[in-house]
Design goal:
This protein has about 525 residues and is α/β, with parallel strands linked by helices. It is built from eleven helices and 20 strands. Bound molecules: 2-acetamido-2-deoxy-6-O-sulfo-beta-D-galactopyranose (NG6) and calcium ion.
Length: about 525
């Protein structure tokens, strides 16, 4: 009796203690802050499916990217929409296939804004839900209306399609203008040295890569022979703005610092950050800290540099106490390329490394390596580590994030794959249209159908197979991930099925770019 009395007594005491603890819990435990996790997209530029050790690279170690891959969901069938940059970025932010927008091609540095300011975007959708939104890094989605004065605020741009804050390079590292813009203003610009940019003709008296090879510290192989900035010949002509020129070797550190400042400033409110790194796109200019570190030349070195940046970024998330409340996506805009226009030893020093992994093709290609990219979702304490073979695309982010934050918005072509991204479901898409420089193909389950295209089989400048053939191509990726055996003739029924699905998605009156009707 005595014992049980004591038991009841201590039991009630524990209950009371628990109750009082519950009472004293701060209300924040269930506030909007918790239902609005931060979302970060870390976006690489030209990183191949085989360029990370977590995706099978043995000649190159990417420990910080691997932490995300091994601690989150590592997707093996994750796709960028396209095999080049601007279309993929367009699709990422809008959830819309880029072939619906005829201007979604690789853009010049003077191209107008590709996203209509009335279009739905991830940052716009999140802003309505109370998020602070930012893009830091490579933009390459056009700026202004086609007639930009770089000495005034440049608009419309990222700030007009949903980003509260933008700190960007306008196009690519190999394109002018070679300056940073913060919320539309060129940084460090001296009003007495205005900037002028032109993609058609040079400014009188200005040296070019073509005419002044003696001024170059990096030689051009194809293209890239216009204005010279920091001894590197670029695409496009530019004059003035000397104080504002970026330092190529500092670019990675510079963008990283901006992301750190953004995290520090926004740690107390829900945010969306699109962190778009410039590596390993050309020109590859590792900071001296990383020079020679990969033994693979600058391409390998800048991958190590990017890996370090991601480590620092994740460390900052942790230090700011944000790691448990942040969904981090890691992926890239298109597949790998070695020689993309400069002599930089990417080919010569490659050794046994295979940037495409087991896949065929690369950047610009309709074969798998063009669009299938490293694709990881990571969320400390929420996502369980694992691998997923589900078919997923970056066009699915908008609708999936929408579901995560309780918005009703859906994009035109994206699916809500939130449970798959969170590692709770293995369900993916059935169909996905892949794009490479305006040509399109269909992935249906584990099948790929590429319609006939008359273009060259190989782009000899970059030495990449493009996926063109005068007949239909059909591959079974389950059995033939390297796309070596064309089953189009052997499996006419399957081919027909895929062509019909493809036509349904692309529209009945679709005729491919070679004028071939597919019906
Ligand atoms: C190509 C460039 C290439 C790269 C690419 C864009 C030439 C000959 N080649 O036109 O170097 O800049 O555009 O790459 O100029 S992307 O990753 O931004 O799509
Ligand atoms: Ca790219």
């Amino acid at each position: 009796m005595k014992i049980s009395n004591r038991l009841i007594c201590s039991f009630s005491f524990i209950l009371l203690l628990l109750f009082s603890q519950c009472q004293s819990q701060p209300k924040e435990a269930t506030t909007a802050r918790d239902s609005s996790p931060n979302i970060v997209i870390i976006y690489m530029d030209d990183l191949g499916y085989g360029d990370m050790s977590a995706y099978g690279a043995t000649e190159l170690q990417t420990p910080h990217m691997d932490i995300l891959a091994n601690g989150g969901v590592r997707f093996t069938n994750g796709y960028a929409s396209s095999a080049t940059c601007s279309p993929s970025r367009y699709a990422l932010l809008t959830g819309r296939y880029p072939w619906r927008n005829e201007n979604a091609k690789i853009l010049a540095g003077t191209a107008p804004l590709l996203i209509d300011t009335a279009e739905l975007t991830i940052p716009k959708m999140l802003k309505v839900q109370g998020y602070t939104t930012a893009v830091i890094g490579k933009w390459h989605l056009g700026l202004g209306d086609g007639n930009v004065d770089w000495n005034q605020r440049v608009s419309p741009g990222p700030n007009e399609v949903g980003f509260d804050y933008s700190y960007i390079m306008a196009a690519t590292q190999d394109r002018v203008p070679t300056v940073y813009l913060e919320n539309g203003m060129v940084q460090g610009l001296d009003p007495n040295d205005p900037i002028e940019v032109d993609y058609q003709k040079n400014f009188e008296g200005e040296p070019t890569g073509k005419d002044n090879p003696e001024m170059l510290r990096m030689k051009w192989h194809h293209g890239h022979n216009n204005s010279i900035v920091n001894g590197i010949p670029r695409i496009g002509f530019m004059k003035g703005g000397k104080n504002a020129h970026w330092v190529d070797e500092d670019m990675a550190d510079h963008f990283l610092e901006k992301t750190k400042a953004f995290l520090a400033e926004n740690r107390d409110r829900p945010f969306f950050l699109y962190y778009a790194l410039q590596q390993p796109h050309v020109p590859r200019t590792p900071h001296p800290r990383f020079e020679g570190k990969s033994g693979m030349g600058p391409r390998g070195d800048v991958i190590l540099e990017a890996d370090w940046c991601i480590g620092e970024f994740m460390k900052t998330l942790e230090e700011q106490g944000l790691a448990e409340n942040t969904l981090v996506i890691f992926t890239g805009d298109n597949g790998p390329v070695l020689n993309d226009g400069y002599y930089d030893d990417a080919v010569e020093k490659l050794g046994n490394h295979t940037p495409s992994g087991p896949l065929r093709g690369g950047k610009y290609s309709l074969f798998e390596a063009g669009t299938r990219v490293p694709f990881i979702t990571y969320w400390k304490g929420t996502i369980q580590a694992g691998t997923s073979d589900a078919l997923v695309s970056q066009i699915d982010f908008l609708s999936s994030f929408s579901s995560l934050v309780g918005s009703e918005e859906k994009s035109q072509d994206g699916l809500n794959l939130l449970q798959t991204f969170l590692g709770k479901s293995q369900e993916g898409r059935e169909n996905l249209v892949l794009e490479a420089t305006t040509r399109t193909a269909l992935r249906h389950k584990h099948w790929i159908m590429i319609p006939p295209y008359q273009g060259p089989a190989v782009n000899n400048q970059v030495n990449i197979e493009l996926g063109n053939d005068s007949g239909f191509q059909l591959y079974d990726l389950d059995k033939d991930i390297g796309q070596r055996t064309n089953l189009a003739e052997e499996q006419p029924e399957k081919l027909k099925e895929l062509v019909s699905i493809f036509m349904d998605i692309r529209g009945e009156d679709y005729v491919n770019t070679e004028g071939l009707e597919l019906k």
